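Quick one: structure tokens for this chain, please?
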Amino acid sequence: MYKIVASDLDGTLLTPEHTIAPFTRDVLQRLHAKGEHFVFATGRHHIDVAHIRKGVGIPACMITSNGARVHDENDQLIFSRNVDPALVAQLVEMVKDDETVTIHIYRENDWLLNRVDEDLAKYHKDSGFSFKEFDVENPPVDDVAKIFFIRHDHDYLMGYEQKFIETFGDKVSVAFSTPFCLEVMASGVSKGEALKAVAEIKGFSLNECIAFGDGMNDVEMLSAAKKGLIMETAHPRVKATLPDNEVIGSNVEEAVARYLETHLLG
């Protein structure tokens, strides 16, 4: 049946408090004992995800920064693709004067942002992974896995989404990870392409993969896997884009773990 289980984190596998619940941890450990290969597939930074994985207590590959980085169970980097430095500089230039939007940059070992946002700490209370500020007049442009923009107004950010697509075309990949977080990666980068790479390395095909997600940055992965399941709390754009995909419950009720227990462990 399925040999690889890939899941998004926030809004999907994690609780609304952004933690792994005990029942979910138990299911993932039982899946591993059965011989299934679990993959964390997220927009988060790999340093952050490594702490989450340690808390779960299983070896697992990590697709991070929406597919711009892939690490194996031993933290060895097996795939990496950066945003072109010139495009990073141009993206910062396009947004730097908008005081309503926070600019974030993920590099290999850093999380940088243009102004402090203490509200973000709740996402990283388990790992302790934290940010540093950068100067928008002299932004870091090398070794950038992704650059992303946060404002709690989806319609407003959609304006930037359109602007980025019109300006850069297929030179970048653009996706919302949440309605309030617009992300830009290098051309061709997605969780779907990363899942394909993991499957090939493991000696499996995408027909042996099952995936779970709730964001627009999950669409390629949910399409690539043999079965892609959508959380009931997913953004309407996800459901509209994938109208034939099964919708399960929410992360409040640990729907991913309950589905896995019923269908892969039952």
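The chain is about 35% helix and 25% strand.
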